[in-house]
Design a protein that fits this description.
Length: about 190
């Protein structure tokens, strides 16, 4: 009975400390960047909760220019809205999340195994903006191609970034602006 009281006291003390920390740092808000402590803790939890078998998986899709191009197109259409075309995360959606979308070009991502990257793409990361992208009946090939593309992010060329801009989804305002530009240019050529 005495040990149960100690455990309860420790849990209450931890909860009080967490409440104090949240209030002292401005409350629960996505507007502030993650602290070093939060980042460290999140990485530890993610590492612990990623199955060993997933970490050890090897990419079954051979790397090639075609695979990188397909990964680039998929990234531009599905991932860039949060991670930016260049993988920096420096885009309004990615910066508005808590934790912020990571810079995928840096060692914190690049040093992960292919299996870990695949696991995150397929299963998401709870309590973040990263959704799970696996779907019943899909074999994960697109996710493995994305792993190759993530490895390529630090070496993106200017031409690849331009191609991604062309492939990025467009909103109604962008579509209308492009229509008006085309209309203007056609009027000049007549």
């Amino acid at each position: 009975m005495r040990s149960l009281a100690w455990i309860l006291a420790i849990v209450l003390l931890c909860l009080a400390g967490a409440l104090f920390y949240v209030r002292a740092t401005g409350g629960l808000t996505a507007k502030r960047p993650s602290s070093n402590m939060e980042t460290w803790f999140a990485r530890i939890v993610r590492s612990i909760t990623t199955p060993s078998a997933a970490k050890q998986k090897q990419n079954p899709v051979p790397a090639s220019e075609q695979v990188i191009a397909e990964g680039l197109a998929h990234w531009a259409d599905h991932c860039s809205s949060c991670h930016a075309n260049n993988g920096s995360g420096a885009i309004s959606m990615g910066q508005g999340m808590h934790p912020r979308a990571p810079d995928m070009r840096l060692p914190a991502t690049q040093n992960r195994t292919d299996g870990e990257l695949f696991f995150v793409i397929e299963n998401g990361i709870p309590w973040t903006g990263m959704p799970a992208w696996s779907h019943p009946g899909k074999d994960g090939t697109d996710s493995w191609k994305l792993v190759h593309f993530i490895r390529h992010l630090p070496n993106l060329t200017f031409e690849e970034r331009r191609e991604m801009e062309r492939l990025n989804p467009k909103g109604p305002d962008q579509i209308e602006e492009e229509r008006q530009q085309q209309e203007f240019l056609q009027g000049e050529s007549q």
